[in-house]
Specification:
The protein contains seven helices and seven strands, in the order ααβαβαββαβαββα. By secondary structure, it is α/β, with parallel strands linked by helices. The chain has a single domain, classed as 3-Layer(aba) Sandwich (Rossmann fold), CATH 3.40.50.150. The chain has a seven-stranded mixed β-sheet with strand order 3-2-1-4-5-7-6, sandwiched between helices. α5 packs parallel to α6. The mean pLDDT is 93.
């Protein structure tokens, strides 16, 4: 296999992996937010697959934001900044892939989700579901499912006072 063929196969895998959340995104109304968007997966493939939905891709790295701007479909926009600085309770769905350990990713994503919405986390086989569930409980959410490398958290109430915490707090002092 040539290097170009390997690159094409890797890109196809990224798209397929991103689209695993397609049905979850379809079943929840509102803005879909990709937190820590980086290379654009899963946000850009899902935005192309759901052209009638609004997408926001958030990343704190200006170079990555510039990259994302070049590949955005018309229904998506980039917010270049820290997720902890975003307002609470406005997204229908948040997505996080390769962002941080799952419990930290949950703490960053759930404050953005409005009650009735969901957070979807791509996780590896060693994900500590108990820690993610404990974090979710502290943020007015619950663990709905954890299978096939996806953890789904349902937001049940408004974000409690004090969240999101200051920049870096989730990594330094995880909730669970």
């Amino acid at each position: 296999m040539t290097a170009l063929e390997e690159l094409s196969a890797a890109k196809a895998w990224l798209v397929d992996d991103s689209l695993r959340a397609l049905d979850l995104c379809r079943t929840h109304d509102g803005v879909i937010v990709d937190v820590g968007s980086g290379n654009g997966a899963p946000g850009i493939p899902l935005a192309h697959a759901l052209p009638s939905r609004e997408f926001v891709l958030i990343d704190a790295n200006h170079r990555k934001c510039a990259f994302l701007e070049r590949w955005l479909p018309a229904n998506a926009r980039v917010v270049c900044g820290r997720v902890e600085r975003q307002q609470c309770d406005w997204a229908g769905v948040t997505l996080a892939k390769a962002l941080a350990p799952p419990a930290v990713a949950a703490e960053w994503c759930l404050p953005l989700v409005r009650p009735g919405g969901i957070a979807v986390l791509w996780v590896g086989p060693s994900a500590e579901e108990e820690r993610v569930a404990a974090t979710a409980t502290k943020l007015a959410a619950r663990l709905v499912s954890a299978r096939d490398g996806l953890i789904v958290l349902a937001k049940e109430g408004p974000t409690p006072a004090g969240f999101p915490r200051r920049e870096g707090a989730a990594r330094r002092r995880p909730l669970a």
